[in-house]
Write a structure and sequence with these properties.
Layout (H helix, E strand, L loop, with lengths): L9 E5 L12 H14 L3 E4 L2 E2 L6 H20 L6 E4 L2 E3 L20 E5 L7 H12 L4 E4 L7 H9 L4 E4 L8 H10 L2 E5 L8 H16 L3 H9 L2
Parallel strand pairs: 1-2, 2-4, 3-5, 5-6, 6-7, 8-9
Helix pairs in contact: 1-2
The structure holds fe (ii) ion.
The site of fe (ii) ion has 5 residues, from loops.
């Protein structure tokens, strides 16, 4: 998509892979989700199916995702203007996870960027150390999923530690934009997502409105987001 920045529109967080997680119960839902995305002008969907290491294995997740990607490739053929679908995962943070070498398997496409979901119940110094470890020792770039779910103190700390952050579109509904303006304008919000679960019609309407807001606050946002993910 390089060279056509005006048309680039990335959904960086979406549960659209059929039967890969609870966000999409099958091909009919996936098809409806892709139609909604196409109608909104989305060009790329980063498919971030949930990976919960405490109750799943990497092998099982990857096998499930492979089948789902094959199914969605078939679905895309029947949808005009269907967005490209990029395999990824939303990896739930557990302490044990960081002692393994499996994290690169969950990165976005062929990049070194990995979407990490924190448990809002236990964000403490161990968590910040683990994230730093992923970045500085494992050489990956953790991006914090739906950072809008967390308290101001957490967001500030993540920002001070220079972790890139992903915002859900609902966070930019009036009158909440001002909370995120500094992070969008400083470049620490690197990605915008619908976090779509199911096929609610307003998911992509909301993303489209949010994309217009971020481009207004930070012109070229989508182009930089694409570069961040290696799209
Ligand atoms: Fe999600």
């Amino acid at each position: 998509m390089k060279g056509v920045p005006g048309k680039l529109f990335i959904d960086a967080h979406a549960h659209i892979l059929p039967a890969a997680d609870h966000g999409c119960d099958g091909t009919q839902t996936a098809s409806e989700q892709l139609r909604l995305a196409a109608a909104a002008g989305v060009t790329h969907i980063i498919a971030t199916s949930h990976f919960y290491p405490q109750r799943d294995t990497a092998e099982a997740f990857l096998a499930r995702r492979k089948s789902a990607l094959e199914a969605i490739a078939e679905i895309r053929k029947g949808i005009e203007g269907a967005p490209l679908v990029i395999p990824a995962a939303e990896v739930y943070m557990t302490t044990e996870l960081y002692e393994t070498d499996i994290l690169p398997l969950f990165c976005v496409g062929g990049s070194r960027v990995i979407l990490i979901e924190l448990s809002s119940g236990y964000i403490n110094d161990c968590v910040y150390r683990a994230l730093t470890d992923i970045r500085d020792r494992k050489g990956l770039t953790p991006v914090i999923a739906h950072v809008d779910r967390y308290a101001d103190t957490t967001v500030r700390r993540l920002s001070e530690l220079y972790f890139p952050m992903q915002l859900n579109s609902t966070a930019l509904r009036f009158p909440h934009t001002s909370r995120w303006r500094p992070y969008i304008q400083s470049g620490q919000i690197t990605a915008l997502g619908s976090d779509i679960h199911g096929a609610a019609r307003n998911s992509y309407r909301s993303l489209r409105a949010a994309a217009a807001t971020v481009e207004k606050l930070s012109p070229g946002f989508m182009r930089r987001s694409a570069d961040f993910f290696g799209i």
